[in-house]
Amino acid sequence: MYYSGQELHVEHGGGDPPPYPQAQPASLHPQRRRPSAFRVLVRAFIAACTVVVAVAVLVWLIYRPRAIQVAVDAATLSRFALNTTANPRPVLSFNLTAGLTIRNPSRRTAVYYDVLSADGFYRGLRFGAAALPLSYQGGRRADAVRAVLVGSSGVVSWDAGAFGEDNHTGVFPVTLWVLGAVRYKYGGLMTTSATMLSARCPLALKLVEASSRVECTVISF
């Protein structure tokens, strides 16, 4: 190396120029990261839920379960008296007989009744109940059952004034509730947990006089 005027000359020995580092070629197939165990579990859970929902929808489309139908064909109140002199509260004596029809309208769905009863209410207060002898119904089947409620009730405080008015008119507003625990069978599949059946049957009863047919309102099934 030497200086000449304003110029700077750099000399180096002969031979090849000094090597420069070469860039490494990018990998054509980058390594994929394995999904974590948490992601695998989430994906498996979503897939399982999708399968369950799809099967449930398919079963519903095939079997199309319909609401159970309940009706009171006739009800007779042979005794309905309130003893206001009973101590410590009035006692209601009753004798109610009701013929009911319970129908399963579904063609491919069978119904199992784990528990089934008819409960009598007068002005919102329960006075008696009777078990109904029905445990199984096949598709599109109607069964006639009989409920007999006999006894006396002094557990609640009956309204003597309201009872006197109803006794004067000769018409007693009695509500019959059909209550039960129900399981359904769709072909070879059966529900493992029971659902509650609740049907309301409003009646206007006269002593020793059969009522007309009343269609009940099924609230839950």
UniProtKB/TrEMBL annotation:
Record keyword Membrane present? yes
Query: Keyword set for this entry?
Result: Membrane, Transmembrane, Transmembrane helix
A GO biological process held by the record: defense response to other organism
What's any one GO cellular component for it?
A: membrane
Q: Where are the transmembrane segments?
A: 40-63
User: Where does the record place it?
Assistant: Membrane
Main subcellular localisation: membrane
Q: Which PANTHER family match?
A: OS01G0864632 PROTEIN, OS05G0367900 PROTEIN
* Protein name per Swiss-Prot or TrEMBL: Late embryogenesis abundant protein LEA-2 subgroup domain-containing protein
Q: Which organism is it from?
A: Oryza sativa subsp. japonica (Rice)
